[in-house]
Predict the 3D structure of the following.
Amino acid sequence: MEAGQGDRVDKKDDKKKKPKYENLGFNTAEALDILQRDIRRIIDEYEKECKKNKLTTWPYEGNILFILVIFNSILVISDNRFRHLEILSRVKHLAQQIEVAKSICYWKLEHYPHLYSPLSPCITLQYTYRDGQMVNLPWALLVAGDIIVIRPGQQAPGYCTPFEDSDGPVLHAHEIYSPPLPTGDVFSSPQPRVPLRNQRYKLQETPYLTSLRLALDQALDRPVTCFNRERHLVVICCIEQLVYPILLILILIFNLLRYLYLYEYVGIGHWTELFLLQPVTVTLPLLPIAFPIWWIVLNCFGMARFKALFKLYQSSKKNQFLDPFEEGTDHSQPDVVYNWTELSRYFCAIMFGKEHMMTRSANILHVLGSVTALCCVDKKGILSWPNPTAEKVFFLHNANAAANTSSNANPKETVSHTSRYYYFSSLFSVILIKKLFSLIYSMTSINKSTEPNHPNDNSAKQEQTNKSSTQHQNDGTHAVAEVLDLTHDRALPFKLQFDDQAWRQHLNSLKPLGLAILLNTCNMETQEHYARFCCHVTCEAFHNENLVPVTNRRCLCELAKQIGFKDQAKEIFHLEQQLSTFRHVPETARVRDMKFARSLSISTKLKFPFPHMVAVVVREKNGGGLQLLTQGTADIILDSCIEFWDGHDLCPLTESEKKKVQDFYNRMSLTSYCTAFAYRPLTRSVSSHLSNVYLELPTESKHLFTPYRSPTPLPWDFRNVLDPRIKGLLGQFHSTDSLLCSEAKEDEVSSVEGCFELQCNQIFIGMVTMQYQAQTDMVTLIEQLERACIRFVHFSKENELRSRVFSEKMGLESGWNCHISLLSERDREAEQQQQQATEDSVLIQSIDLASGQDNWRSLSCLTDSTEQSAPVNFDLSNRAKLPRGIDKIRPHIELIDNVPLLVSLFTDCTTAVTREMLHIMQDYGEVVCVLGSAANAENMPIFMQADAAIAVEPLYPQVCQRVAVFTETRAEEGPSPIELSRALNSVACSLSIKREDPIAVYHLIMEARHYMKCLWNCVQFWLCCVLTLALAQALSAFLLLPPLFTVGHVLWLGCVIVPVLAVSLVGTPTDPSIMQRATGKNQCLVTWEVAAFVLWCYGFKFLPTIVTVLGWQCLALFALCATYAKPELPCYYVYPNVSASDVAWGGWASKPDTLLVVQHIALVIVVLHFVTISVGFVHREYSLWRKLPFNNWIWFTVAVVVLNVRYQKRARLEFTTKLGMNSPF
């Protein structure tokens, strides 16, 4: 494994020793060529399969108007074809991108993620040889034939075979590479363990093809959108399949009776008019003549607007852009000004199937317009910052130190308090610590404000601090536990600051911690060794399900900077060796775990990090002194420590102090990442071969540290060495050389026993807890979604405790009835059986929460907020009778209640259970949009299950804030590996974004809601108008009147007037208050209550139109009948000449102009009514006097044009109609 990357920190002496890989693996062009050929092969196979199973479905259309039918058919079939081939066309576009990339892309090492980037469940990377060097390659770019490096404990990305070791195991996809470990041997002393080696494998398949096949096979399996379901219900089921046939049958039956029995009393037309023309005229408005055209056009236009707004928000990263939707913005002016040239380009591309955005098979406009649940399946780098930051700093200090410093007690009394503890090695350690930090602080130019206070000032501040009962807890011993809280700057990933304004009074206690961070935690020279050790520990943990190999060493440079250290401080030292130690946990911990789990009333097993410690041996470049700085889990650190540093002196670490430390560590380890730090000076160097082995301690190893402890302490005063103002007898006669009597005289430690001895007698420095912090924009988004009645659901891969703490940071409800674990009972039973069958020890360290309750309280006030309080300061149990396990969700919903559909947090999630839970939510009417990582190899099935998915390129975790993860490529260099991987992984997603770009999901939902509300208003108005036309004509026929309209009139109304009035309603300006209204579920059921509401809501609006136009027809024909009737024959009803069998419609056929005038005026009345009624559809939620409709200038223009056209037609009618004195005008 290479030890560095680009210009990152590496050992200069090892550069010449790096292996050469010029002929190993593919170069970039070859790999991309293989990836392109594999994708092309999948495309060809899919197209051949489609040709075999090709079915052409012609929509049900009327056969009256041939041209419109043909045009509708072509448009609908084309739209359906584009929907079927949408993902396939996106894959072809990706193949073209790869074709271009392989000719221009030459990726350097810095273009890939850092080799030692911390592992993240949201990002899948693989060590691969490319262009003669090992890189951290995104998994989607792996191809068959790649030479990869599998680390111990890592899952294989696909089927692969050993590259060099023919006897090595063959690995299949998702199989874990776990080399054999020495098991079964019982030992009682520290044992050396050879680190597990990385193994080279040759990949035999392209892993991405599995996800690609899944996307292609399930491209059409997504749920039908709510709006398409409602459109199908209303247009197809209710109108075309119910109203249309009923009305057609009634008009035919009534005309048959009229033709057979009523021809002597009322006028009738020719049989072709009664049985062909009039039924067609009556039912023609109910046929989808123009509706499919406008539905497709309006959907494409809405997607074009949506994409334009999405691009506008993406560009706002570079160009400052005023958010038009924020509160306080003046909405009297147009908010978003669209570029109509760009909008028309988007529209044409979407209309003709050339747009690479998902517009049909996963219509993001429809989904966001009706979304009820926004689900996030990845946390790190999306919901939270990718790197955890320090939240609390724990250390011990002597409660009597300040009092002794400021008291007037005589030296004998002082000696009596401390002489029984301190000995020569302690003095030597104190001297070195004082000298060391004085040297570092003098070289790093620390601010005077951060210097240690004068003893007298410090005593005064200490006395003032002790007045606060919430800051110090003293249980009667001399040691007090201090906890300093830190607040994360939410605008920056690493920025921190202490909450307590007087934190500098503890600066002496914090200095060793800052030095340990710089030399061990954030030392780039230690990353390779630490990465190997983590892999080894991971394999050790595989032997028991309860072991958790948590890699809790993350960047703490900012904390060291806050303490006062600069980066140059580490230049004073030179790294000599690195020592790693671990141990298993005894079996007796299981009993304590069961007791503790019962006390918390939680179902999941409590898991703590694998006990380990990692130490570095550094040498001062000037003085040559050796220092050992250790960090790890508190349990093993405490066993190796005999003293603690209180900021002034070394104090004995008694069982009472250890209990304080252990209690704090156990509490914090439940929900955060806690690391303990220790230190000791060395007088002997360490052999280099000890860095190449790991030290395993027995499960019961506490007694092993006892023989190496220092001898019985001598009764003398040590303060004279630390403070030159205090003179004592021993201070005058003892030199530092005489303090080394307990140390051996060997020049170099080379044995395992000597290595273990070096790590004994350490000085406890303190602990740091780290936690992932929620990003501000996501917290704001959740608050906005809650106001919009959209439930934010987090599918957490972590257990209940960790998930609930973070959910509180996100602002989600995490109380007793707000979370469900999806880990099924059968999985838990399998774990328990495996636990009973195995002989390995269990890493379940239980704690008693009642002990030490007041010994570690934070300096900040304890509240219910997880940012300022202990993670167990709330009720951890889930006392509600909620189901546990995915297999219990459906029975609970069917038999008990729907609470599982109302919670915002699901824990213990895997890809399979997450997908099943999404399916359950969809079955019960939820419209689900999923946010997920575009770098996660496991997310494709989840993306395909959701109604729509948004792929987010997460923020990548950094090994240190001073080291960039990767470098972006320039424009002429083509896409970077990260960009190309994101394009491949988001092939089934409606949107693909970068996390660092502004996430405008809320405003995109607002745009989608507004447009789809306007579109549905358009549909409702359209359907009401055509139903009014059909019912008015049917009632006219039932009243035995002549035809109300001609076919031309109906076509004019149904294909011109009604569509343009309805479509103009889409131009209504965006109303932000739409986000305060809840959307319904994706369940369309017609009940009697719904039918009654629709008739009441819309019937009273359009009933006057029917009454008015029928009244006009009756009155006009009745008034004109006497004029045209013969003197010897009276009028029969409204017919002037019923007896004349050769004249249709009772004599009106001989006066066509008169009947035409009546029909035209009826047409004018209908148009006037439709225009008037459309006023109420512009702003449906507001009264007319509260919000005028004229701000929709499109509707206003259309209404004026329509009325003007009707006026011109009537004027022409008056000019050409010869009625003279008999004119009804």
